[in-house]
Amino acid sequence: MGVDERFMEESSWETELALWQSPPEATGFQREVVREVVEGRYSEALRRLKRKVVESVLEGSVSSFEEDDGDELEHSFLAAIVLLRMFQRDNICGPSLTEDELVAVEASTRFEPKDDELDVDGEIFGSSVMRTNLLLAVRRVLVGNEQRLSQRFWSATLWSARVGRTHQDVLTGPSPTLKSEVQGAYTSALESSKIVMNPVLEGLVHIEMALASNRFLDSNTNEQHLKLAMDTLHTKIELSGVLGVRTKWQKEEKANLVAQVLQEGEEIGGNLSIPTQCKRPRNIPLDDTDLLGFTKLSTDQKPGNERTTPTVMDHFLLSAKAESVAANLPSGQLTTEEIRPYLNRILDASEESCPPLVLGKVLLFRTRGEIGKGRYAERSMKQVEELVDYYKQGNPIDDCGRLIGLEASGYPAMWKLEKEFAILLGTIGLVKAASEIFEGLGLWDEVIDCQRLMGNEERARVLIEKRLDEEGERPWLLAAMGEVTRDEKWYLRAWEVSKGRYAKAMRLLGRLLISKNEHQKAVSALEDALKINFLYPDAWFLLAHAAQKCGDIEKYASSLTTAVQLDGSNAEAWNNLGSAQLQLGKPQAAVTALQQAAKLRRESWRVWENLLLASIAANAVRQIIQAMDALQEIRGREGVSAEGISAAIVEIERLVESDEDDGGRQTADLARRLLNVLGRASALVSTEPAVWNAYARLHELGGDHGMVLENRKKEMRSVLARASQKYTSDVQHFEIVARTATNLAHASIQEGSEDAKLSALLQVNSIVTASEPNFADTDYFRDLKKMADHLSATEAS
């Protein structure tokens, strides 16, 4: 029985048809299959296809299409897509497959994947992933046969990318093999002449590529395709300030960031729509006496080209932008503030235009940002529980809209959503309930953590031993036993059983060895793990630490470089990389790394101090001044750096004498910035000679001899205050005092007044008299004596 036509606008299923076959080329048969799948009638779609071909696909015995059998090619391709959608519904968006649908795929029970057949780069399936044989059957049709299939179906590479993307979504971690497979297939799909004829379709695929790249820690590709998606769809998303309130009793409106969806150029037709009967997950309101739980904005502050109601494609863009921003936040610092504008734009819009899974992901993002905030705890728990329940609710026909734009929504696999629910339970103290969920999901590391929190680590060991007895030596169970016992033999056995493929065993072993200060062995273990799967920035960070302890600075630097390439939000890794580059004699590279660390951790004085040291070594005057300014703001008087001030003024003086200055503009700007720093420094520490020395030299560049003299006097007083009477007997103190006195004498001569020269002469003579007994035979003393004689002569004349 078909779906009511009111449920699905033509544009939605025509766009879906274009993902299977270009509409002008599609046969009536293909159109019927596509319509049945889009409307959630999978059993009917499978029955329409040749039973023999469908069974071949389900049994995993499909041919490689070397013979020119058009019907077999067509039916295999269509059957594989139907089965992919069934697998996705069963494991990602729900609801679960019906009995009728299970009967339709009964042939798939005749073969099961081997234990490791779908594991990739040491990454395994979540234990609760259902009907993995469907995914394997689909892979055998759509992956590896793209060239042959593309002769009949332009979108063969796109479906190959979607298979790889789905495969990645149900694995425990990112896979380099799947990254190459998925990004390569998406790139091929986007090169097709068919796709550029449909802007909605092209924009959709760019969004899919952006989200897939996030899964593989590839932020550059993510940002590139997100921009291409907006350009293709003639849409721009930008942040603006709008007045609004966040509490029930707030009278005065405050500025809030909002995301605006702006029309850029002509509007794109043929947008997607969602069936009206399709249910969305509930947005759980905040039950609080003061907080609204959302931002209530003024309604009269909208630009003329902003869309009043975002389209379905706008929602995909907003959601993808929120995920991109979240992925680039400093590690462990996700809050709703950074992504709130994008989330609010979706939540404020009409539900009818919002894809169900986009709404679900937005609610999940909001919950992640609220975890740990006491007043939001109840809503957070109820919201994730609602998302888990949403999977189970509904029926395939009414809720067929869940699969529209599935890959562009970035919605997590069901087992990952349940994992988030368990984590939330743990954060609010329900550790036992969390442990039970983790156990059901086969997440043994989390089970161990929960049992440790409850003081019952022995129970975790018993549970794992029981599973080993029941299932045999599985690498993940052996590694989990290593975590409980902290015994190396279990990790090594896991590595052996997996034939050197279960990379997690070596990552865990490397961490254990570091804790035991066995750093050379840790390096070997971590390198073994990273040869299998390099997409783990934390493992690179551990390898860097172990390499540093072994004295291998080259490996220390190269490992940190890879860590920040994979996770550019790790401030500690950037900071350590800067330190490593400095040790390698690459100060400019150190400055670059430490600037990134400072962006991510502005409040850390240690990062700014490291940046200052690197900038001094690199003669990077602008960065020297920036670091000094930050240090003074954070540490006050402790942040005043005489070394930094001296280095900055030396570099400014060098610029004046060189051909590098652009008509004096660069020097003027740097001098202005340094004066600001010196102003704060002199207020914090009035007795720091370097401050007055720098002031004097800056005024000397400007030709203001009066100000030069004033600051030389202050410098002289500061030096004498610090040296006290030590300069009469200590050579180091004497040299500083003599040099400062000589500068004061020069300044008085340049200023030219009799009072200035007399005052300087008295000061110099006083120092000459006091230091003569111990330093009369030194160059500094002889130079100072000559200056005293010169002052006497000029004054007499």
Tell me what you see in this structure:
The protein has 797 residues and is mainly alpha-helical. Helix content is 65%, strand content 4%. It contains 38 helices and three strands. It has a three-stranded antiparallel β-sheet with strand order 2-1-3. Helix 1 crosses helix 2 (28-38), helix 16 (377-392) runs antiparallel to helix 18 (414-427) and helix 25 runs antiparallel to helix 26. It starts with 9 loop residues before the first helix and ends with a helix. The model is unreliable at 1-11 (pLDDT under 50).
Secondary structure category: mainly alpha
How many helix segments? 38
Arithmetic mean of pLDDT: 89
CA-atom Rg in angstroms? 34 Å
Largest sheet: 3 strands, antiparallel
Helix content: 55-70%
Q: What is the number of strand segments?
A: 3
For the record, give the distance between the C-alpha atoms at the N and C termini, rounded to a whole number: 116 Å
Strand content: under 5%
Backbone shape: elongated
Low-confidence stretches: 1-11
- State the strand order across the main sheet: 2-1-3
Structure keywords:
single chain, 797 residues, mainly alpha, three-stranded antiparallel β-sheet, disordered N terminus
In short:
With 797 residues, the protein is mostly helical.
Describe the secondary-structure layout:
Layout: H1 10-20, H2 28-38, H3 42-48, H4 51-58, H5 70-93, H6 99-104, H7 132-142, H8 146-150, H9 156-169, H10 176-190, H11 199-215, H12 219-232, E1 235-247, E2 254-263, E3 291-297, H13 312-327, H14 336-348, H15 356-370, H16 377-392, H17 406-409, H18 414-427, H19 431-441, H20 444-453, H21 457-471, H22 475-485, H23 488-497, H24 503-515, H25 519-532, H26 537-549, H27 553-566, H28 571-583, H29 587-600, H30 605-618, H31 621-635, H32 642-657, H33 665-684, H34 689-701, H35 705-723, H36 731-751, H37 754-775, H38 779-796
Antiparallel strand pairs: 1-2, 1-3
Helix pairs in contact: 1-2, 2-3, 4-5, 5-7, 5-9, 7-9, 9-10, 10-11, 11-12, 11-13, 12-13, 13-14, 13-15, 14-15, 15-16, 16-18, 18-19, 19-20, 20-21, 21-22, 22-23, 22-24, 23-24, 24-25, 24-26, 25-26, 26-27, 27-28, 28-29, 28-30, 29-30, 30-31, 31-32, 31-33, 32-33, 32-34, 33-34, 34-35, 35-36, 36-37, ...
